[in-house]
Amino acid sequence: MSGILGKKIGMTSLFDENGEVVPCTVIEAGPCYVTQIRTKEKDGYEAVQLGFDEKRDRLVNKPLKGHFAKAATKMLRLMREFKGFNGTHLKAGDEIKVDMFIPGDIVDVSGKSKGRGFQGVVKRHHFSGVGMTTHGASDRVRAPGSIGGSSYPSRVFKGMRMGGRMGFERVTVKNLKVVKVIPESNILIIRGSVPGAINGYLEIEKKHH
Known about the structure:
By secondary structure, the chain is mainly beta. The chain folds into two domains: 1-30 and 98-130 and 162-209, Elongation Factor Tu (Ef-tu), domain 3, CATH 2.40.30.10; 31-96, Double Stranded RNA Binding Domain. The protein is 9% helix and 41% strand. The model has no long low-confidence stretch (mean pLDDT 88).
């Protein structure tokens, strides 16, 4: 699947052809620059590496400066590879813009979900809590309860659902529909919601029919 990198701007709503209100996500998609072409002969697979979001020179280390100089691109903050491009017509330094999409295209959108920090079992795993607030047990309402056996197996099983850090994981939402493309502003409007917070980076992969 070919694709583009972008940044989540926020959500809005539009009217569809039936007059129904449709919730949509507004994404700043591109422009992206080709920073490297992966080939089967040299790398063992075919892919196109894209870079997005310009960065100040002083924030880039020497190896990356050399990488961008070789591709003749600006210093970029984010780089990802896409395997669906036909690499023969692209070369390092080429620009990929949002006009590669048209309304009606189906896309998969990947990004980091919102980080929630340390959360207990009620919020993290939807436990109901163990119960009563009587008989001096008012502090046990949102507790997880027992987490294992006593004399056997004398340990807690791996994967036990407990409190812990929640969110900030890679999430992919599939089969979203492109509602509108505004090339002059690098804007892509997609039906539905996508992972992450405002200003979070996204990978938008176009499905080929």
